[in-house]
Amino acid sequence: xxxxxxxxxxxxxxxxxxxxxxxxxxxxxxxxxxxxxxxxxxxxxxxxxxxxxxxxxxxxxxxxxxxxxxxxxxxxxxxxxxxxxxxxxxxxxxxxxxxxxxxxxxxxxxxxxxxxxxxxxxxxxxxxxxxxxxxxxxxxxxxxxxxxxxxxxxxxxxxxxxxxxxxxxxxxxxxxxxxxxxxxxxxxxxxxxxxxx
Length: 197
Description:
By secondary structure, this protein is of the alpha/beta class. The protein folds into 2 domains: about 5-130, Response regulator (Rossmann fold, 3-Layer(aba) Sandwich); about 140-195, no CATH class. It has helices at about 5-10, 20-35, 45-50, 70-80, 95-105, 115-130, 155-160, 165-170, 190-195, and strands at about 10-15, 35-40, 60, 65, 70, 85-90, 110, 140-145, 170-175. The strands form 3 sheets. It has a 5-stranded parallel sheet, sandwiched between helices. The chain has a two-stranded antiparallel ribbon with strand order 4-5. A hairpin with a 2-residue loop joins strand 4 (about 65) and strand 5.
């Protein structure tokens, strides 16, 4: 298959969020890990201009935008693209009337903060129409070793909890000396560091 044909087969996803950092993160995530074509907009007005020149397969829309809501934008986009997959993301509960609109029009809802893998699995499932679709990040997970003073064990635990999203996505595996089994307390800690997975 020619590279041009492969690009034509890639789904196109419209990302709309007024937070530029969120857009950059999501664009990177979806481009690198799924190979999708990504279009971005930071407002309802900007998003309205995108479909005129592009065929869009899915739209990931922040609920609260500076000039409207993601639900209303999703309804507008669906008028011209009835097969469009719409996913609304928000850090708050939707008002009852907008929640009813989402249910009526089969808009998926993602509550912020969400794991990148949850978002990608949701999008991939809907784009591929396959209940078995699940994101599998390519490449090998990084091994993270915690080197710390035992009096800082609580800080190590907080850092480990903070990295749980990356562990859930199988991007990293963490290890520290307290993960030795009973009776292995004085085992050399460099053995797991040098071991190949």
